[in-house]
Amino acid sequence: MMELMTRFERTAPEGSELPVLITPAYAGEPLLVAQARLAAEIDTHLKLVGGVLLRGFSVPSVQDFQQFAAGFGHPLLNYEFASTPRSSVGSGVYTSTEYPAHQHIPLHNEQAYTREWPMKIWFHSVLSAVSGGETPIADSRAIYRRMPEHIRARFAPGMRYVRNYGEFDLPWQQVFNTENRADVETFCRRTRIEWEWKEDDGLRTTQLCQAIAIHPHTGDKVWFNQGHLFHVSNLQPEVRESLEELCGIENLPRNVFYADGSIIPDEVFDEIRAVLAAETVSFPWQDGDVLMLDNMLAAHARAPFKGPRKVVVAMAEPHGNLDLF
Fold first, then answer.
1. Which CATH class is domain 20-142+280-318?
2. Where along the chain do its domains lie?
3. Using one digit for the tens of pLDDT, what is the confidence trace for 68-85?
4. Which cofactor does it need (predicted)?
């Protein structure tokens, strides 16, 4: 039997255990074969640490990855109310966010800009990049603890996301997976989203969501939102200037406000981004790796890369707080 490796190449803040590394019992052990003996151990690590990296196992195909993710007792989820472009690989598996290779995708918890999200998320490195392309992660509990108290207090009532779909962002048909306005309205009504149909088949939505959440199983408080991604300060300065001039604040493709609708100063998100940077854990992918995260306890990101790269994603175990506000 191979010993469980406890150290590997990574950068991390002091005290971080993310991710727990698990390796095969023997060379070439299929991940699907190992799943039965590892399931309880993985569950324990997810609750305590927030994520595990399964490295060195045989994962011959994306279908094997799909079966592994589906083997934890919950059907894999479709990617609904999307904020970024992805393509379905089939049976609940999707490509990772299809942004250009030179772009950095900041840390975030999947679908934390909504009031329904997956509790589990898996990443499978089918092909690692020649350079870069890491999937940095961070402890959402540690982010909450490090966040300045004045920010935690101001965001305690939540934050208000505003999206204008169409020319400068994803079309609403892609986001809601339908061409039917009635279907959109049904979804919005169920998920507590305000909507407004605009000229030229446009749509604006507004939703009050959590900024801080309590994990349903561990009871821990976590920083759980995507405010720093939606806020206008996330845009390149020249892009921001152009869009503000063209659209005005109200019609920007996406933005986020305090729960009462007031503007959040850029400086607030400067502080938030500094906390996220301080809690970042990063490690290079190896072909065949599978990373499994508790989506509320661990955030994830994507580093720029060069050369071909293929990482696929699966999500499961829906959870939400539709009755909170």
1. alpha beta
2. 20-142+280-318, 143-275
3. 999 999 999 988 776 666
4. Fe(2+)
Displacement of CA 140 from its chain's centroid (Å): 12
10-68 pLDDT, tens digit per residue, is 999 999 999 999 999 999 999 999 999 999 999 999 999 999 999 999 999 999 999 99
Asked whether the beta carbons of 261 and 303 are under 8 A apart, the reply is no
Contact at 8 Å (CB) between 170 and 212?
A: no
Q: Tokens at residue 319, please? A: 């959870």
177: CB partners within 8 A, 6+ apart = 78, 80
* Side chain identity, residue 284: P
CATH number 3.20.20.140 is the correct assignment for the domain at 143-275: no
Encoded tokens for 78: 């479709």
Regions in the chain scoring below 50 on pLDDT = 1-6
Q: Rounded distance, CA 133 to CA 101, Å?
A: 8
